[in-house]
Amino acid sequence: MTQFIKLPFYAKLSCVLISLISFAYIFCIAKDVITPVLMAFLFAVLLLPLFTFLKNKLKFPRHLAAIICVLFFAACIIGILVFISYEVTDMANDFETIKKNASVFLSDIHKFVKERFHISIGEQKKYLDTVTKDSVKNGNATIGSAILSITDLLLDCTIIPIYTFLFLIYKDHFILFLAKLINQENHSALKDILSQIKVSINNYIVSLILEMIIVSVLTSLGLWIIGIKYFILLGLITGLLNLIPYIGILIAGIITVLASLTGSGETSIILGILVVNIIVQLIDNNLLVPLIINSKVEINAFVSIIGIIVGGAAAGISGMFLAIPLLAILKIIFDRIESMEAWGYLMGNHMPRKFTWRIRRAKAVS
To answer: Could you say which of 1, 18, 66, 184 has the lowest number of CB atoms within 10 Å?
Structure first.
């Protein structure tokens, strides 16, 4: 008979904290290897229904079904990138107009600062020249970092489809490996965990795609109303960058402001773009995210924000994107392990109406 050792609370808490710190340290030192694997795992789970349909219903060989799934996914990504590159090339033809309108816009800013803060245009230009010189001094390091980032991105774009293909091929192999790690009486719990993980990740990614489409449509509509030329491209870019928490919408706003200079450099257009982005973000944060995202992953906002910050500190943008699905997986696991159930409850968004302490009083000894 298997005997379990009962540890006091402080020992259990210490083990949990040591385990979390160990996993976090391993992830930080091996993020360049682990991050593409996790991204490929998410994509493989997303493509799993298509893979199962091709293999079981249409009787495709396993390898052929996996290749078709990966090629289909790659074709969707490439199609979006081709459309964006085509529109950006068209926008590049208006470079002279952008340059002219940017000069007018900067002149308006100089005049506004001079009138409001009583700083002469010469002092403003002198300060900008100083900042520019400091930026040029660090130019070599910036260019080197950019080259390394582009190299890492190209490597990930190559290796992630391969990992996704391998996850689909060896799906049953990995499941059997997990089954061999635990006792047979716990196989039903393992099956339940794996099925819930698949459903949760699928729902989360599909919800992200739906949110991206809605944000793109709303932004495009708003930009079209205020008269921005490339409203479809800018709406799509905003929807894509909105997948990156916090900084994505800021980058999209800067790109939209620059693109608006193809038509006019008027301040009213810039203010209109800011109003459109603010309205879309209010709709996204207060309506779309609670209804579409949070209802699928069941992670409360407090834990989500901490997870995104930690993920960004550990692995940058990829870590921020992976934070929510990884937290959802942890919650599913915690909810089905009795000793970890409290942690799963902490991560959830359950709101009890009223809490009453249930204290068991010791009987008096006669």
So the answer is: 1
Helix extents (H) in the chain: 9-29, 31-52, 62-92, 95-117, 121-137, 139-169, 171-181, 187-225, 231-241, 247-260, 267-283, 295-297, 301-335, 341-347
Can you tell me the distance from the alpha carbon of 92 to that of 112, in angstroms, rounded to the nearest whole number? 29
For residue 148, what pLDDT is reported?
A: 47
Least trusted range by pLDDT, from 65-79, 145-159, 265-279, 321-335? 145-159
pLDDT of residue 365: 47
Q: Tokens 């709303």 map to which residue?
A: 218
Measured CA distances, 106 to 103, 112, 176, 219, 265 (Å)? 5, 10, 63, 25, 9
CA–CA distance, 259 with 88 (Å, rounded to integer): 10
| Distance in angstroms (rounded) separating the CA atoms of residues 160 and 315 | 16
Query: Using CA atoms, how far apart are residues 319 and 314, in angstroms rounded to an integer?
Result: 7
Phi, psi for 180 (deg, rounded to 5) = -75, -20
Per-residue tokens: 142: 């910036």
Give the tens place of pLDDT for each residue, 106-117: 777 777 777 777
- Please give the backbone phi and psi of residue 166, each rounded to the nearest 5 degrees, phi first: -70, -35
Q: Which two tokens stand for residue 162?
A: 């391969």
Q: How far apart are the first and last CA of the chain?
A: 38
With contact defined as beta carbons under 8 Å apart, do 55 and 62 qualify? yes
DSSP string, 287-336: IIIIIIIIHHH---HHHHHHHHHHHHHHHHHHHHHHHHHHHHHHHHHHHT
Structure tokens that stand for 116 in this block: 């409001």
**What's the rounded Cα separation, in Å, for the pair 352 and 366?**
39
- Residue 267 has phi, psi (to 5 degrees) of -65, -30
